[in-house]
Amino acid sequence: MSIFSQYISFMLERQDQILELTTQHLYLTFIAVFFAVLVAVPLGITITRFEKAAGIVVGIANAVQALPSLALLGFLIPILGIGSKPSIVMIFLYSLLPIIKNTYTGLTNVDRAILEAGRGMGMTNWQLMKMVQLPLALPVIMAGIRISAVTAVGLTTIAALIGAGGLGQLIYRGISMVNNRMIIAGAVPAMVLTLVIDFLLNILEKLVTPKGIRRKAKK
Amino acid sequence: MRKLSLAIFVVLFAIAQVFCFSSTSYGAGESAGKVVVGSKNYTEQMVVGHMVAELIEAHTDLKVERKLHLGGTNVCFEALKRGSANNGIDIYVEYTGTGLVNILQMESKTDPQEVYEIVKKEFEDRWNLIWLEPWGFNNTYTLAVKEEFAKENGIETFSDLGKLADRLVFGCTMEFAERSDGYPGFKKAYGYSFKEVKAMDPGLMYSAIDNDLVQVISAFATDGLLVAHKLKILKDDKNFFPPYFAAPLVNGEVLKRYPQIGDVFNRLANSITDEDMQQLNYMVDGEGRDAAEVARIFLKERSYI
User: Fold this and answer.
1) Are B106 and B121 spatial neighbours (Cβ–Cβ below 8 Å)?
2) Which end of chain A is more exposed for a tag (fewer CB within 10 A), N or C?
3) What is the tens place of the pLDDT at every residue in B219-276?
């Protein structure tokens, strides 16, 4: 019990710092994932039209994902320096794959019969995409964004290694000082952040699911 | 589709909020009259990093931004070459031996003055980076074992350790495992190697030796954790490790623009001993005090600020 209260008092003592680092953390994650969505969704849509390009794009995204994050940071420092810029670029690159993949899969897995029906009604390609494919694929796309966002929160902790701040700062400093209270003061807020983001995006995912394909409550 | 546009609107609105909020604290800002101080990712570097920042703040009109705890020598060095104008840093405290062996990739030398002179000349010629006067303490690499282990086995020097080496697991930093003035060179100089080498984060080495997962660790002579964890420093009886005197390393362009920085640090030339530094490190690692506070207290006590 006393250990527990020690942690609490440490967190209270440092609450300003923890709050500041949490905000930084959220900022880095948010900007990176936002731009990832901006790039990856249109890219995912585009490659459904060019089947040959699909393999290449997904392959490149896969390769980026396979590169260890610290190695990627090592490459980025000579180009972008240190601080938030290279960190955001790193998180951005890692966030691309799940969104591209889910967008592509979501769109290509729409039932052919539904597409035929749409075409039969005289819809153009664009109308079909806007009124049929996208709404039906939206839950899958949102799931991809959710995976990216949750992964990004964890990834952002290593931004502290190149001076971008964030909750990783407490974690890494705690490790180098062999100070468990400090590690926990960084890890717990990061965990809470992950859960909150996951929860909120889950709600959003449900909200965008078209009424027609929502799972009906059990009878 | 209405729901989709609503969702998009909500997200965009949130982003706009973040941008508005952040532009104050993260925007490019005015770079005039600002110096960015860096440091590597362990306690001593945090303390000296804060000292550098405090000194500049106290004796000049320059604004100081602290980018401390960067991930290792390479990150600091690359960032220093760029300077704060290019998203890097302007100054950090480096060790002469690290400059010689690790960055310049030159043969290890034992004479402190010679090492300082070589790095001073080479860094300026190659990258326009300037070494200021060393502060006096020599944070050399060393090996440490538990005090009781040393007593039981009668170990005082690195050579003594050689007799048991094939039964011992060695924990060291990733940097030490790779550097030519680290484990690879050590093996050559002493002619033995350990049963197993486990490279890890500096802070984790102490937990590892506490829990007997490793028996020997690489350490810094001025490390406060050595005191806190009851470890014994062994003697480098073949003088393998080069001297690692700490001195501020500054980007040459920044020093030209703000020559007052040089004067600020030369007050500290040769005035901090190994014991002083170990004490300061202990205040952070052993007593859990804030590195910034420890740096400030020390500088005030000695009336440097």
Assistant:
1) no
2) C
3) 988 988 888 889 999 999 998 999 999 999 999 999 999 999 999 998 899 999 999 9
Q: Can you tell me the distance from the alpha carbon of A154 to that of A34, in angstroms, rounded to the nearest whole number?
A: 16
Residue B21 is predicted with a pLDDT of 45
Closest CA to A10 of B229, B286, B288: B288
State residue A43's pLDDT score.
Answer: 95
Give the separation between CA B241 and CA B55, rounded to whole angstroms.
Answer: 31
Tell me which residue in A26, A70, A173 faces B69 most closely, judged by beta carbons. Answer: A173
Residue of B43, B46, B88 with shortest CB distance to A81? B88
Strands B169-173 and B34-40 turn out to be unpaired
Whether the CB of B225 is below 8 Å from some CB of chain A: the reply is yes
Closest CA to B279 of B271, B290, B267, B287: B287
The pLDDT score that the predictor gives to residue A59 is 93
Nearest to A204 among B7, B38, B70 (CB): B7
Q: Taking the model in full, what pTM does it have?
A: 0.80
Q: CB distance from B285 to chain A under 8 Å?
A: yes
Please list every residue in chain B whose beta carbon sits closer than 8 Å to the beta carbon of residue A178: 203, 206-207, 225, 228, 285
Please identify every stretch of chain A with a pLDDT value under 70, giving residue numbers as ranges. 1, 215-219
- Largest Cα–Cα distance of chain B, in whole Å? 79
What's the gap between Cα B68 and its chain centre? 10
Residue B217, SS3? strand
- Measured between beta carbons, the chain A residues lying within 8 angstroms of B88 are 81-82
CB pairs under 8 A between A and B: 95
A41: three-class secondary structure by DSSP: helix
Closest Cα to residue B224, out of B285, B274, B291? B285
Cβ separation B69–A163 shorter than 8 A: yes
Distance CA A153, CA A53 (A): 30
Cβ(B258)–Cβ(B60) under 8 Å?
A: yes
Q: Which tokens belong to A57? A: 């794009």
Given the structure tokens 């950090």, which residue do they identify? Answer: B92
A179 by DSSP, 3-state: which?
Answer: coil
Provide DSSP, B112-134: HHHHHHHHHHHHHHHH-EEE---
